[in-house]
Amino acid sequence: MMRRRRFVRAGATWLITIGALVGAVFWLDRLPAGDAAPAAPAAVAEAELVARGAYLARVANCAGCHTARGGAPLAGGRALATPFGVVFAGNLTPDPATGLGSWSADDFWRALHLGRGRDGRRLVPAFPYTETTRMTRADSDALFAWLRTLPPASVPARPHELRGVYGTQLALAAWRVFFFRPGVWQDDPGRSAEWNRGAYLVNGAGHCAACHGGRNLLGAAGDDFAGGFLPTGEDYAPSLARADQAGVHDWPLEEVMALLRYGAAPRGRATGPMAEVVRGSTSHLSDADLRAMAVYLQSLPHEAAPPRRPIERDEPAREHAARGARVYADHCAACHGSTGEGGATPDGRLVIPALAGQRAVTLDPPANLVRSIAHGGFGIASAREPRPWGMPPFAHVLSDEEIAAVATFLRQAWGADAAPVSAPEVARWRGRALD
């Protein structure tokens, strides 16, 4: 009898403790007192407000996630893979039953600023409220005003398919306690107006850190632009702080702007998910905003590349690279040149990227290089290049061993000295083609 009582007391103690912890988590992640959104800014002309909202939707690339392939614009339904399961983007059209038709401007502000739905429920952080929390109320209202002008589309929300407890309100509350604080944008008085504008665009609506900040084991993005794999685990977003990855501190400002405008510059090209960002977002921005973003990106603290590990030069390694040279000669040299110099039009415009000296080739890890070889891709259509050249896929032509060999050759040819690529690494990184 006494043992049973001790067991009951111990169980009751654990239940009380667990209940207290759960209560503490929800209390720490409670809504602000009164749940009051700041007063809306002074009224502006409706047409001006809507135009500003349309522009902000481009800055934020809302359609990139909220438009399913073949679906109505911004009607949601697109599946977004994460390490914790699949998240389905919501319907942003003003449909009253399935979209934002019954939302108010205050509701929308709370979603951007606090990561809360209209009913107060916590939103999953695949929606980048960790960055949009920095947007001003005026910009939130403008974006909402534009969304209200879209044709309503009846697309019911699909429940997220998250594993285990990841989608529960308790898990989201605990995540937010550690990784989210509502923010209010404040200009840095020690910086120029142009720098502050660029910082606001990059860190707010542009939510660049959502990819280039990397993700920890619990899915929280860093704020140092140190780079990392995207949630799918296939594409790698390079560091914006390292010169050997995607840092631009030593680029001419015009080249940074060209990369954001056209997806192509003498020292680099946008590929994969970044090409989608350029196509749907930065190619539509004003010159002034692109310049502001470039100024800010160039000001990021830059890090030296870590020393590379010594490259094995034994007979198997030499044969591996030699096999890659043969694959390159058979499948790549006709377009990219016998010495990796790229291909130019008769008037001298480089339309097929050079591979010699390209940091995208020597990037560690070589996931993006592997995926480019396996799945190919097209450049970005622009006013400067309305019909860009494309890279055909080779996944159906080359084996994993051959892709590894040609990737190794590229990473060690023409003065490069990067680590080799193995067939198991190709199998790991080639993944699926972009949707």
Structural class: mainly alpha
Percent of residues in helices: 40-55%
Cα-based radius of gyration, to the nearest Å = 25 Å
- What is the helix tally? 18
Average the pLDDT over all residues and give the rounded result. Answer: 88
The separation of the N and C termini measures 64 Å
Strand order of the largest sheet: 1-2-3
Outline type: globular
Low-pLDDT sequence parts = 7-22
Please give a quick description of this structure.
The chain is mainly α.
Characterise this structure:
It is built from 18 helices and 11 strands. It has helices at residues 2-28, 46-60, 62-66, 105-114, 129-132, 137-147, 169-179, 193-203, 209-212, 253-262, 272-280, 287-299, 315-331, 333-336, 359-362, 367-375, 400-412, 423-429; strands spanning 79-82, 85-88, 161-162, 228-229, 236-237, 264-265, 268-269, 343-344, 350-352, 377-378, 390-391. Strand 4 and strand 5 form a beta hairpin. It is globular, with a radius of gyration of 25 Å. The termini are far apart.
Key traits:
three-stranded antiparallel sheet, 18 helices, 6% strand, mainly alpha, 435 residues, two-stranded antiparallel ribbon
Helices and strands in order, then pairings?
Elements: H1 2-28, H2 46-60, H3 62-66, E1 79-82, E2 85-88, H4 105-114, H5 129-132, H6 137-147, E3 161-162, H7 169-179, H8 193-203, H9 209-212, E4 228-229, E5 236-237, H10 253-262, E6 264-265, E7 268-269, H11 272-280, H12 287-299, H13 315-331, H14 333-336, E8 343-344, E9 350-352, H15 359-362, H16 367-375, E10 377-378, E11 390-391, H17 400-412, H18 423-429
Antiparallel strand pairs: 1-2, 2-3, 4-5, 6-7, 8-9, 10-11
Helix pairs in contact: 1-7, 2-6, 4-6, 8-12, 10-12, 13-17, 17-18
